[in-house]
C-alpha cells in the first residue's frame, strides 16, 4: 500500500473548502500528506473544511491563503498563491498542485453576458494555466518530482447546453494539461486531469462528501481475482499490485510451469499470504469456446469464497504484417486472443456476477491502438479498438447493477510482446514519449489496484491511459 502513500509531501489545492476539492483534501490527508495549503474565501467554510479533513488525519498541517478568484486580478492571484505557498511550505517545496477551484454560468451563447463568460474563462482556465506555469516552473527549478492535477470535466470531451464558457474552459484545460505534459514529463513533473461526471456539490446544488478512511478504500482484502496472462509483463505487474493490496486469492492462467513458478515467486514478494491457483490454457492452440468454458468453470471451482470479484482480461498477442498480405490465420489469431476471448469471458463472468450479486470489477488491457491505427498491426488495432468500445457498451448495461467495467491502455512497455520491434521503431518511440522512458511492469501496479478497488467507485466505462504522456503528444 506504500504505492499510495504521500508521507512528507506538501500540496496546494485551490477550492478545497467544499465539494470535489474537499474530497481531494480528505483523500490526500488520509494518504498521510504532511501539509495541505488551501485557498479560501470565507473563514467559516475554511474552518469547517479543516475540521472535516482532520477527521481523516489529525496530524496533517493545514495552512491557508485568502484569495478571491472573482474579485481579485488574475496576475495578483497567481503571484499571491505562488509566493505564499512557498513561504508557508514546511519543507520549502510544493510537491503537488491541484487546480480545482471552478465556477459555472449557464446562458444561451448568443445572450451570454460577456462579464460572466469572461469570469468562467478566468477562474476555470486562465488562473489554473498560470498557476501551473508559475508553480511548475518552480518545481523544475528546485528539481521537485511534482504532480499537477487539474479538475477538468466531462465537458472537456462533450459540450453541454448553455455552458459554452464552461465547456470552452474545461476543453482548453484538458489540452493545456497534455501540452504541458509533453514538455515537463521527462523532467520529472507529471501533469494530469481528473474529469468528474455529475457530482453532488455546491456547484450542482446538493452536497455529498463521504466520510470514510480513504486508504482502506484501496484494500482488496477478502477478494478473488482471475487474471489472464499474468505470467509476465503487464499482467505480472497487475498481479503484484493486487497482491500488495491484500487480495485473498489470485487465479492465473498459464501455458508453461516454469514461467508460472517464476511469476508466483515474484508475486509472493508482495504478499506471502496470497493464495495462488492456476489454470493451464493456450489461447492460440485451444478452441475459443473451450477456453472460455474451462476458465469460467475452473475459476468458480477454485474460488475460496465461491465468488469471483475481479476479472482481468490481459493475455494478448500481436502479429505484424502489411494489411494486404496479412496471413489470414495470424489475423484471426489476434482477433481471437485479443478480442473474442476477452469479450466472451466478460459475458460469462459478468452474467455470473449479476446472478450472485457480486460487486464485480472487470478490467481489460487495451492499448494506444484503441485510439490510433498503428502500422502493420491492423488486427491488433481492430481488437484493441473493439475491446475499448465493448467495455463502454457493457458499462452502460451493468454499472447500475453493481459491476464496473474499465480498460487500462498501456503505452510502450518493455515486455516479450515488444521485444520483436525493430531497433529503428524502438528508437522512434523513445524520442516521442514525453516522459522519456518506456514503462515497465511496476508502472501497472497502482493503476490496477485503483480500478479494482473502491477508490475508483465512480469510474466505469473508462479507459485509463498509462502511457508516459504519449497520447497527448
Ligand atoms: N507491451 C506493450 O507495450 C503493450 C502495450 C499496450 C498493450 N499491451 C497489452 O498488454 C497485454 C499483456 O502484454 P505484455 O506486453 O505484458 O506481453 P507479455 O509479457 O508477452 O505477456 C503476455 C501474457 O499473455 C500470455 N499469453 C501470450 N500468448 C498466450 C497464449 N497463446 N495463450 C495463453 N496466454 C498467452 C503470456 O503467457 P506466457 O508466459 O505463457 O507467454 C503472458 O502472460 C496484452 O493484452 C497486450 O496486447 C502491451
TrEMBL record:
Superkingdom of the source species: Eukaryota
GO terms assigned for molecular function: oxidoreductase activity, acting on the CH-OH group of donors, NAD or NADP as acceptor
Signal peptide location: none
Keywords: NADP, Oxidoreductase
Coiled-coil blocks: none
Family statement drawn from the similarity comment of this UniProt entry: Belongs to the short-chain dehydrogenases/reductases (SDR) family.
Protein name, UniProt field: NAD(P)-binding protein
Amino acid at each position: 500500500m506504500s504505492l499510495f502513500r504521500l508521507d512528507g509531501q506538501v500540496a496546494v489545492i485551490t477550492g478545497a473548502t467544499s465539494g470535489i476539492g474537499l474530497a481531494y483534501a480528505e483523500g490526500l490527508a488520509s494518504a498521510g500528506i504532511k501539509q495541505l495549503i488551501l485557498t479560501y474565501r470565507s473563514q467559516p467554510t475554511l474552518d469547517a473544511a479543516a475540521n472535516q479533513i482532520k477527521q481523516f488525519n489529525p496530524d496533517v498541517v493545514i495552512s491557508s491563503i485568502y484569495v478571491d478568484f472573482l474579485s481579485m486580478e488574475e496576475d495578483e492571484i497567481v503571484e499571491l498563491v505562488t509566493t505564499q505557498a512557498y513561504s508557508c511550505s514546511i519543507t520549502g517545496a510544493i510537491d503537488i498542485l491541484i487546480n480545482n477551484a471552478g465556477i459555472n454560468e449557464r446562458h444561451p451563447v448568443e445572450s451570454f453576458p460577456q462579464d460572466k463568460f469572461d469570469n468562467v474563462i478566468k477562474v476555470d482556465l486562465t488562473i489554473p494555466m498560470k498557476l501551473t506555469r508559475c508553480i511548475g516552473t518552480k518545481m523544475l527549478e528546485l528539481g521537485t518530482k511534482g504532480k499537477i492535477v487539474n479538475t477538468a470535466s466531462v465537458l472537456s470531451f462533450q459540450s453541454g447546453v448553455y455552458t459554452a464558457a464552461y465547456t470552452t474552459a474545461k476543453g482548453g484545460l484538458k489540452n493545456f494539461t497534455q501540452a504541458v505534459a509533453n514538455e515537463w514529463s521527462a523532467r520529472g513533473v507529471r501533469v494530469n486531469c481528473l474529469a468528474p461526471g455529475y457530482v453532488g456539490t455546491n456547484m450542482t446544488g446538493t452536497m455529498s462528501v463521504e466520510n470514510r478512511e480513504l486508504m482502506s478504500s484501496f484494500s482488496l482484502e477478502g477478494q478473488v481475482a482471475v487474471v489472464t496472462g499474468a505470467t509476465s509483463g503487464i499482467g505480472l505487474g497487475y498481479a503484484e499490485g493486487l497482491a500488495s493490496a491484500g487480495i485473498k486469492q489470485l487465479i492465473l492462467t498459464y501455458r508453461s510451469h516454469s514461467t508460472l513458478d517464476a511469476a508466483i515467486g515474484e508475486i509472493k514478494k508482495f504478499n506471502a499470504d496470497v493464495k495462488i491457483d492456476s489454470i493451464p490454457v493456450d489461447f492460440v492452440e485451444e478452441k475459443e469456446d473451450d477456453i472460455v468454458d474451462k476458465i469460467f468453470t475452473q475459476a468458480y471451482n477454485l474460488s475460496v469464497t465461491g465468488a469471483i470479484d475481479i476479472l482481468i482480461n490481459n493475455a494478448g498477442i500481436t502479429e505484424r504484417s502489411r494489411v494486404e498480405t496479412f496471413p489470414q490465420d495470424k489475423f484471426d489469431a489476434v482477433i481471437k486472443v485479443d478480442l473474442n476471448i476477452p469479450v466472451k469471458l466478460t459475458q460469462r463472468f459478468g452474467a455470473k456476477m449479476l446472478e450472485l450479486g457480486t460487486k464485480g470489477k472487470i478490467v481489460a488491457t487495451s492499448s494506444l491502438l484503441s485510439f490510433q491505427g498503428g502500422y502493420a498491426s491492423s488486427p491488433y488495432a481492430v481488437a484493441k479498438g473493439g475491446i475499448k468500445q465493448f467495455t463502454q457498451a457493457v458499462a452502460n448495461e451493468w454499472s447500475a447493477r453493481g459491476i464496473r467495467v474499465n480498460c487500462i491502455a498501456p503505452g510502450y512497455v518493455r515486455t516479450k510482446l515488444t521485444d520483436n520491434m525493430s531497433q529503428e521503431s524502438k528508437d522512434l518511440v523513445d524520442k516521442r514519449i514525453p516522459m522519456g522512458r518506456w514503462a515497465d511492469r511496476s508502472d501497472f501496479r497502482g493503476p490496477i489496484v485503483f480500478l479494482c478497488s473502491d477508490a475508483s467507485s465512480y469510474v466505469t466505462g473508462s479507459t485509463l491511459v498509462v502511457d508516459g504522456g504519449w497520447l497527448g503528444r
